[in-house]
Design goal:
Mean pLDDT: 92
Radius of gyration: 20 Å
Low-confidence stretches: none
CATH topology of the largest domain: Rossmann fold
CATH class of the largest domain: Alpha Beta
Helix content: 40-55%
Number of helices: 15
Oligomer: single chain
Distance between the termini: 44 Å
Largest sheet: 7 strands, parallel
Structural class: alpha/beta
Number of strands: 13
Order of helices and strands: EHEHEHEHEHEHEHHEHEHEHEHEEHHH
Shape: globular
CATH architecture of the largest domain: 3-Layer(aba) Sandwich
Length: about 375
């Protein structure tokens, strides 16, 4: 059996990986190993490794790396600690392949370590662009240290090949998050309200706002503008999901908590909703507001509008349900009015999701079962013929 080690460092990432992990576990040809790190092990972010265990998985190694700091020095130090911990974990587990998703600094530490150990890496959701984030450089760096690539769209596949990866090892499978929408039994409205301990109103908005790590000292001002816009809304309930553990995340935590304390009659925040409650929220709210990739990848499948604020997701492929706006109060209010307009609501009914209609997990498992992991760490740069 081929040992496939899945590494996860955040709640959102695990939510996307969960079905793939289940299918690896159930495969007669694959042996699942799990390393949990980053936010999963932090009390501040909800100790979400327990969600992995509740789903019936065994965590083989926990790698502590997250410091109680969101400064540049703190994050860089966390990356160094992560490499030390990952070296010990990989020495013990000796996987045949590492499976990782995305672009976070925790994953960069792991993949850098795997490169030194000469362990092949399968990378999910490569080739994407996020021009407002440090994650942009991290994602492309991970691509160059990886050997199998599972991408969401043709454009992203072309970009991975443009980075010098052999087309034979770059597979277009669609967006992983779409699988959960069709395979999970989502909560109905009353079940969701009970699980949240929060009543929905006639109008409801889901807010997910993360730091913009390449725009120095901007995240705080941008969130203040968003919160100022939200305070002007009438008869609208607001659900916040808290930011990831990125640089400057703690000031955003503070601002959201202060907003909810002032407006507890119509607003609440959640450190970690988990995939079931998060997707159930998408089912029952009117729109997503913020700068999270979920507003671009998952929300269109629910025929729900997304207000995408600022540059964090600049460069990603977007459905027609996404409204881009600048991080200023009047622009945000204008976008909210457009979301509720009759013309836009009619348009939503025919929206197509560019990230596909599901099936990514099944495609990935078929390839992992079939593909040999031997000698794939030796790569030649694939040169594109320029006409």
């Amino acid at each position: 059996m081929k040992k496939v080690c899945v590494v996860t460092g955040s709640r959102a990432e695990y939510g996307l990986l969960r079905l793939v992990m289940r299918e690896i576990k159930d495969s007669p040809n694959l042996n699942l190993q799990i390393i949990a790190t980053g936010m999963h092990l932090s009390p501040e972010f909800g100790l979400t490794y327990t969600e992995i265990e509740k789903d019936g998985f065994t965590i083989d190694k926990k790698v502590e790396m997250l410091l109680n700091s969101d400064t540049s020095k703190g994050v860089a130090t966390s990356m160094g600690l992560g490499m030390i911990g990952c070296a010990n974990a990989l020495e013990d587990l000796k996987p045949d392949l590492i499976l990782i998703l995305g672009d976070r600094f925790e994953i960069f530490s792991l993949v850098s370590t795997a490169m030194i150990f000469r362990i092949p890496v399968a990378h999910l959701h490569g080739g994407e662009l996020t021009e407002g984030l440090i994650d942009e450089s991290i994602r492309h760096s991970i691509t160059k240290m990886s050997h199998l690539h599972f991408v969401a769209t043709k454009e992203y596949r072309d970009r991975v090949i443009q980075l010098g990866e052999n087309p034979k090892n770059v597979f277009q499978v669609g967006g992983l998050g779409i699988d959960n929408i069709f395979k999970m039994k989502l909560l109905n409205r009353s079940q969701l309200e009970d699980s949240l301990d929060f009543k929905l109103a006639e109008k409801n908005l889901l807010i997910t706002y993360h730091p913009v790590t390449l725009e120095k000292e901007n995240s705080e001002d941008q969130l203040k503008n968003l919160l100022s816009a939200l305070e002007e809304l009438k008869d609208t309930n607001i659900i916040f999901t808290m930011p990831n553990a990125d640089m400057d995340s703690r000031i955003l935590f503070k601002l959201i908590k202060e907003f909810v304390n002032r407006n507890s009659k119509f607003a609440n925040y959640y450190t970690s909703l988990g995939q079931l409650k998060y997707l159930s929220c998408l089912k029952h709210i009117d729109a997503v507001i913020g700068n999270s990739s979920s507003g671009l990848i998952e929300a269109p499948s629910f025929k729900k509008g997304t207000i995408n604020i600022g540059n964090r997701q600049k460069g990603r492929i977007k459905a027609e349900s996404v409204i881009d706006c600048i991080p200023e109060k009047e622009s945000i209010l204008k976008a909210i009015n457009k979301i509720y307009s009759k013309e836009f609501q009619i348009k939503l009914k025919s929206v197509s999701n560019p990230y596909g209609n599901g099936g990514a997990s099944d495609k990935i498992i078929k390839i992992l079962n079939k593909k040999s992991f031997d000698n794939i760490t030796k790569k030649k740069f694939y040169n594109i013929k320029i006409l």
